[in-house]
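I'm stuck. Please check this protein.
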Amino acid sequence: MGQSKPANTGAQPAIPSERILSVDALRGFDMFWIAGGQAFVMEFCKLFANPLPPWLDRQFDHVPWVGFVGWDLIMPLFLFIVGVAMPFSFAKRLARGDSRRSIYGKVIYRVAVLWVLGMVAQGHLLAFDLNNLQFYSNTLQSIAAGYLIAAIALVELPVRWQAALAGALLVAFWALMMFVPVPGHGAGVMTPDGNLAMWIDKTLLGHFQDGTNYTWILSSLGFGATVLMGVLGGHLLRAQMPGKRKVLLLVGAGLGCLLGGWLWGFAFPIIKHIWTSSMVLWSGGWCLLLLALFYGVIDVLGYRRWAFFFTVIGMNAIVAYMAPDIIPFREISRTLFAGLSRHLGMFGPFLVASGTLGVLWLGLYYMFRKRTFVRI
């Protein structure tokens, strides 16, 4: 059998350049919130206002159904950043002459590993109890699905068709949700129990469905669109043009997506739980603006020292994501600081929250110093 042909992807061969540190920093900023940053920031804010003002307090928890707050951005941003990095990694494979077979082999391996880690993190895989197993229920698995779609697009399609595919996925999801009737509910129902995406999950997953009002199988179309939005951002970062122009284009694209998501939301509500198309545009707009901010400050203006804390996390993002599910960092912090915290009044909870984040960060910093980076 002859060797497979080289991949014909939308990613151009890698151009030797300085690493774009803002991507690592933005990834670390996202993981910061999952790895203990939420409690740290909340306790810090409570030093000045306890209880927190309602407008601020609601930013730290998901909305029940329709709407979007700060905490709802964590998952879309994770998928988006995966997409941003893809044109860089695929271009490196092209530069060394990797074939389609080799690239797809790596893609399949990564999807499989992410899927298993997702089942470990949230699917109760390690309990070895089929009655308590959730097959598709975690952010890492949504990344796997989105990554698979985006990887095929990168290998097979030029950039303009990658953008067209992202739009087609959003339109396809909208059309299915609006016009395909759900038994017992009808078409276009957007309630937690009556929407098409939930019916598909319950029908196909059965008792392996996670029991929440989050949906996954049909929502994979939206996951792919979110990752592809990141891919398009990555293409822009790799383009041969001044950095300031890239920032302006990212800002323009971000504002355009926010406007599009907001307008579409009147007809197709912004619901993160089912990853509606309007939510993809709305969250993608914020992701693009954050990428513009981090890239502009770190890589264009050169202000990098402040981002080191986040870069350490971002360089080992998968460890930062999985470690809190395996190691009880909060209990370690309480063991170390509970006694002292009782004497600090309002500063006590802040000390425990700082210790929880600090213990994890020190472990990641040790890995950073040893140049130990876990890649999938």
About this structure: The two ends are 29 Å apart (CA to CA). Residues 4 and 99 are 6 Å apart (CA to CA). Residues 21-46 form the longest helix (26 residues). Confidence is low (pLDDT under 50) at residues 1-6, 12-18.
